[in-house]
Amino acid sequence: MRILYVSTELTPYTPENTLSNTALELPKITNTQGNDVRIFMPKFGTINERRHQLHEVIRLSGMNMIVNDIDQPLIIKVASLPNERMQVYFIDNEEYFKRKAIYNDKKTGEFFEDNDERAIFFTKGILETVKKLNWKPDIIHAQGWMTSFLPLYLKSYYADDAFFKDVKIVYSVFDNPFKGKLSDEVIEKIAFDKIDKNHYKHLEEPTFDNLLKTGIDHADLVVQGDEVISQEVLEYIKSLDKPFKPFEPLESFDEIYNELVGEQDEE
Question: Is the model's pTM score more than 0.85?
Answer without folding.
Answer: yes
